[in-house]
Amino acid sequence: MKVFTSIIALFFVCLNMHAQQKNFIDQPYIEVKGSADTLVTPDRIYLDIIISEEDTKGKTSIEELERKMISEFKKLSIDVEEQLFVADASSNFKSYFLSGQKVLKTKHYNLLVYKASTLGKVFKSLQNLGIANVTLEKTEHSQIDRLETLMKAKAVNNAKVNAQAMTKALDQNLGKAIYISESNSYVYAFQGKANSMQIRGMSSMEDSAPDLSFDQIEIKSEVLVRFAL
């Protein structure tokens, strides 16, 4: 009895799905694409810093280099508690044996800054301290999720505007949306090493902090919408 009941239930489910599919195929509709995009300036810039006694040929201890670096960051109004992180949390300092008995220490940091202008000042300060091992890791935007959602909504709205223009030319009225699909969406930002991020303005750092600028982050959404006629 239970098996018979299950078969009957499955039959009605399949019948309902078939009816819905047939109903969708049979009704007249218009299919349009919509897209929306925007460019935003990165507001989260990540810098990789390695301080080492080798930078000063062993003349300055890594502890002293660290203190000086943190002091310079504070002068730039950088919140070191929130923006400066030890990259290798498993150990405070690492030691490397060079030239027999010589021991040089090194420490790895990640720094977060919010403006390209601040980053230029950071580069200048690190250069003055003799810290040379510095790499730009990636750029981000703090509101990227909200902006992605906004572009999707705009893409759907643009699809509706296109559909209305097409149906108006045929003296018809546009019905409700019966199908929506996100066909292509992406966020394109440069990530990786500095030489792949197209950073400009670093040709000279002798007199003042470089005026850095970054390519903007592109956010784009494309949708496919079918409206009933």
Note down, in words, how this protein is organized.
- The protein starts with a helix and ends with a strand.
- It contains five helices and eight strands.
- Helix 2 runs antiparallel to helix 4.
- The strands form two sheets. Strands 2, 3, 4, 5 and 6 form a five-stranded antiparallel beta sheet that branches. Strands 1-8-7 form a three-stranded antiparallel beta sheet.
- Residues 191-205 have low confidence and may be disordered.
- It folds into two domains: 27-42 and 142-229, Translation Initiation Factor IF3 (2-Layer Sandwich), CATH 3.30.110.170; 44-140, Alpha-Beta Plaits (2-Layer Sandwich), CATH 3.30.70.
- It is rod-shaped.
- It is of the alpha+beta class and 229 residues long.
- It has helices spanning 2-26, 62-75, 80-83, 116-129, 144-169; strands at 29-40, 44-52, 84-86, 94-98, 102-113, 133-140, 177-188, 217-228.
- Strand 4 (94-98) and strand 5 (102-113) form a beta hairpin.
- The longest helix has 26 residues, at 144-169.
Features:
single chain, 229 residues, alpha+beta, Translation Initiation Factor IF3, 2 domains, 5-stranded antiparallel sheet, 3-stranded antiparallel sheet
The end-to-end distance, rounded to whole angstroms, is 46 Å
Oligomer: single chain
Number of domains: 2
Proportion of beta-strand residues:
25-35%
Any idea what the CATH superfamily of the largest domain is called?
A: Protein of unknown function (DUF541), domain 1
Structural class by sheet pairing and helices: alpha+beta
Number of helices: 5
| Total number of strands | 8
Average predicted confidence as pLDDT:
78
Which CATH class of the largest domain is shown?
Alpha Beta
Please describe the biggest sheet, giving its number of strands, its sense, and whether it closes into a barrel: 5 strands, antiparallel
In sequence order, what are the helices and strands, one letter per element?
A: HEEHHEEEHEHEE
Helix content range of the residues, please? 25-40%
Q: What is the correct CATH architecture of the largest domain?
A: 2-Layer Sandwich
Rounded to an integer in angstroms, the radius of gyration calculated over CA atoms is 29 Å
Shape descriptor reads: rod-shaped
